[in-house]
Amino acid sequence: MLRDLKSTPNQLTMLRLVFVPLAAIAVVEGKFGLALTVFLLAGISDALDGFLARTLNQKTLLGQYLDPIADKLLLSSSFVVLAMNRQISWWLATIVLSRDILILMTAAVILVVVGYRPFPPSIYGKLTTALQITLVFAVVLLAVTQWPWLHQLRNGIVFFVAPLTVFSGVHYCFSIARRLNEPHA
């Protein structure tokens, strides 16, 4: 396990965990230029750690756990601090956090009851995460630039993020239930 921490992809993932409080503090302090920089660096490190894990054949069990944890922590904390800073609505942050908590609780129950089972994300989950990331980026960029067209884009993304977040959370739970009931799940 300690050897896994030394792999370059896992070190990049650990760096992304360091970005979580930096991004949150930057938003809370109203330093949106810094927050934008941290989000960009987090995105680059996320893409790079996945690329390196595949090309260097450094996929590890630790990385399989840490990578989505780092992503979820950064995204969830972003919604909370952006809502605290009145950059997004609390109702939207609540929907996003509720979905993440639902998925986490489902995974925990499955782990306790039937043991570890891999449940790769669905296309709906991936699309939801991509739109949520795009929304956070647009909101922070809007706080830096004030481009008028970005207001419309942000509003449009919110229109899709909210229902897709709910749908993907429900879809995840039903998919998990179905797979657990299969004979060779």
Would you give an account of this structure?
With 185 residues, the chain is an all-alpha fold. The model has no long low-confidence stretch (mean pLDDT 88). Helix 6 (123-145) packs antiparallel against helix 7 (148-181). 84% of the residues lie in helices and 0% in strands.
Helices and strands, in order, run as: HHHHHHH
Roughly what is the average pLDDT, rounded to an integer? 88
What fraction, in percent, of the residue positions are helical? over 70%
Residue windows where pLDDT falls under 50 for at least 5 positions: none
Structural class: mainly alpha
Sheet with the most strands, sense and barrel status: none
The N- to C-terminal Cα distance equals 27 Å
Q: State the total count of DSSP E strands.
A: 0
Oligomeric category: single chain
The helix count comes to: 7
How much of the sequence is in beta strands?
Answer: under 5%
Please tell me what the overall shape is: globular
Radius of gyration: 17 Å
Relevant terms:
185 residues
Can you give me a brief rundown of this structure?
The protein is mainly α and 185 residues long.
Question: Helix and strand layout, with pairings?
Answer:
Blueprint: H1 2-5, H2 8-28, H3 32-55, H4 61-84, H5 90-114, H6 123-145, H7 148-181
Helix pairs in contact: 2-3, 2-4, 3-6, 4-5, 4-6, 5-7, 6-7
